[in-house]
Amino acid sequence: MRSNLFQPCGRMSGCFFFLFLAALLSVVQPAHSQMIPAQRTPIWQGTVGVPGGIPNRTTIYTTIPAGAAESTIQSALNSCPSNQVVMLSAGTYTFTTSLNVPSYVTLRGAGINATIINASSVNYVIQAYASFNDDFGAPVTANHVSWTGNYTQNTNTLVLSASNLAGGAEAVPVGNLVMIDQQSDANCNASGGYGLQGVWWSIANPTTGADRYQHEISYVTAKSGHTITIDPPIRYANYNSSASPQVWFEVGTPVKFAGIENLSVHNTGGNNSTHGIGLQYAYGCWILNCGESNFRYGLSAYFAVRSEIRHCTLSGLSGSGDDYEFSLYYTGGCLFEDNIVYNYNNPFLLESCIGDAFAYNYTTNGNSGTGGNMNSGDFASHGGNNAMNLLEGNNFMQVSLDNGWGSAFGFVL
Q1: Using alpha carbons only, what angle is made at residue 2 by residues 19 and 395, rounded to the nearest 5 degrees?
Q2: How many Å apart are CA 215 and CA 22, to the nearest integer?
Q3: What is the pLDDT of residue 189?
Q4: What angle do CA 308, 309, 310 make, to 5 degrees?
Q5: Taking Cα atoms as reference points, which of 124, 123, 110, 12 lies closest to residue 66?
Q6: Which residue, among 348, 354, 343, 352, has the nearest Cα to 377 in the 3D structure?
């Protein structure tokens, strides 16, 4: 792992030199105010990626021979005990349906170039997924509750009203993902040069969320009375009672601590709008040391919190003319680190990604596509008020924010 974002200095002599230099400069230089306003630098360290780090699970529940059918692998995954591994042997597999990795289970191949899965017309060849009631277009008023106290940036405890917006008792559940939003202000709007981008939703605007476009996503770890504890903590500094902040949830328990490791998926044709590997409605899940090629949506995270994609290689075009190697929607506190993307259209495409970290990713050998100005950047905001994200040590040709699909705010590069 190459990251000075989360690691201390590796050489004491180097650390000493920089500390000495900093001390010397502090003597000879006049004092300056902080370059980046404090409210635009939430605490990323310790609040992004899998809580506690990706676990190294060593107990192999079963080893699957090369060429095995999806049904054999899925049966093993479904019966695998918690914190154990279903191992895919080196070799080639051919899939015609999708695999789903359940909570607390790891699906592990023999290596990114050793375990190869070919698939044609399969959407999400492998995913860690949990079903939930996606109420986009028809929000459930009873699942929305006013956030009435403790608006401090970086707090993880939120005081809620005793009643939901439908007049019933507040019932935000522990162990669920929650959405947090408030009324839009001048820095946050849903309309750009290409028009309204409907990637959020609210009771008043069920297909656009235009009135409440400042939002973030988190996970409820505990509850006492009507006070919830969340992970990750609040990213924005401007929540206030006059903007009517709310917390709301969708019915469904997320998949938790599921891992996909050491394998590659390859789209052999038949459908150029498919996904390779994905995390959906997930908390603390990961994709590690995996490869994908020729999918329109290579690796994706959709409603993912405190999850990671790292050490992966993405390449090849699907034929759509407008691919998204990293397709990221509704993420919070996620870490995307040390990935390589080559022969691409749009390496990183973000919608409603809040408080994530992108570190030491490398892109090369880009191709033009048919997606307009999104193809002008290796890292592009596509609406949903992407905000408070950290970019460190990446090799990107261009970063494109506010590029026609609505606002982006508070990025640190």
Answers
A1: 100
A2: 38
A3: 63
A4: 110
A5: 110
A6: 348
Confidence bin at 376 (pLDDT 50/70/90): low
Place of tokens 């994709």: 287
**Are the C-beta atoms of residues 333 and 47 closer than 8 Å to each other?**
yes
Given 3-state DSSP classes, what are the helix, strand and coil percentages for the chain, each rounded to the nearest 5?
Answer: 10, 40, 50
Burial of 179 (0-12, 13-18, 19+ CB in 10 A): buried
| Token digits of residue 116 | 């190869």
Q: Whole-angstrom Cα distance, residue 85 to residue 384?
A: 36
DSSP-derived 3-state class of residue 283: strand
Q: Which two tokens stand for residue 123?
A: 């959407």
- pTM, 2 dp: 0.89
Burial 85-124 (b: 16+ CB within 10 A, else e): bbbbeeeebebeebbbbbbbbbbbbbebebbbbbbeebbb
**Quick one: DSSP state of residue 155?**
-
**Tokens representing 179?**
């959405």
The pair of structure tokens assigned to 411 is: 């990025």
**Distance between CA 412 and CA 393 in Å, rounded?**
12
Q: Rounded to whole angstroms, how far apart are CA atoms 380 and 393?
A: 17
Q: Which two tokens stand for residue 349?
A: 């495409």
Q: Which pair of tokens denotes residue 211?
A: 């009135």
H helices of 80-132, in order, are none
Query: What residues contact residue 229 under an 8 Å CB cut-off, 6+ apart?
Result: 156, 157, 220, 221, 222, 223
